[in-house]
Design a protein that fits this description.
4-stranded antiparallel β-sheet; Alpha-Beta Plaits; 5 helices; Impact_N; Impact_YigZ-like; Impact_N_sf; 5-stranded antiparallel β-sheet; alpha+beta; 2 domains; GTP-binding protein; Ribosomal Protein S5, domain 2
Length: 205
């Protein structure tokens, strides 16, 4: 698994546009897997069951990735909705993202070019003010130390941006901590130094 850091959507974001009397609502959210994306798409279909179309696209993985993608024109002419939406998502610099554009037809046909512009533009508009956060590849590391080292361990965890998920105190103190995968070598090295090489193997989850 890579240790890539990249922006991902923070929460659900929606914008609305009216183009030649048709309403276009673009809803964007984070999707960490194709299953997450499909669950979100189904929720939009439930929210807007009377829409003329609920077209969608998603990119699951780092920005610009092409291995786990999906799109649908949902009844619009082939290539006029899902493809332009996906193109925008693949070039926006944001990962793990799904977008659904809900259209309520207003009586005026937009034509093929107009539809491509409307659907791609709806996604672009939503991305302008999309709140994001940094995605960090994390790992859960479990290790044991003697009671004499607890204070030093707590200080070490602060410097490594580690969060204590669970801790128990028996013969020794056992810590389960969540930290960026990139900090794992430093954790190992510091604990080995602290215990003078007596550290039991760190378990990862």
């Amino acid at each position: 698994m890579s240790d890539a850091r990249y922006p991902v959507p923070k929460g659900v974001h929606r914008v609305e546009q009216v183009i030649d009397r048709s309403r276009f609502l673009c809803t964007v959210a984070r999707a960490s897997s194709p299953e997450d994306a499909q669950t979100f798409i189904r929720s939009i279909n439930v929210e807007f069951p009377d829409a003329t179309h609920n077209c969608w696209a998603y990119v699951v993985g780092p920005p610009g990735s092409t291995d786990r993608i999906g799109m649908s024109d949902d009844g619009e002419p082939h290539g006029t909705a899902g493809r332009p939406m996906l193109t925008v998502l693949q070039h926006c610099g944001i990962g793990e993202i799904v977008a659904v554009v809900t259209r309520y037809y207003g009586g005026t046909k937009l034509g093929t070019g107009g539809l491509v512009k409307a659907y791609g533009g709806a996604v672009q508009e939503a991305l302008l003010l999309l709140p994001t956060e940094l995605r960090v590849d994390s790992v859960i590391a479990t290790f044991r130390v003697s009671y004499a080292h607890i204070g030093a361990v707590q200080q070490l965890l602060l410097t490594l941006q580690a969060e204590v998920e669970h801790q128990t105190f028996d013969v020794e103190a056992t810590f389960a901590v969540k930290l960026p995968r990139s900090e794992l070598p430093a954790l190992r090295a510091q604990l080995q130094n602290m215990t003078r090489g007596a550290l039991a193997p760190i378990e990862l989850a």
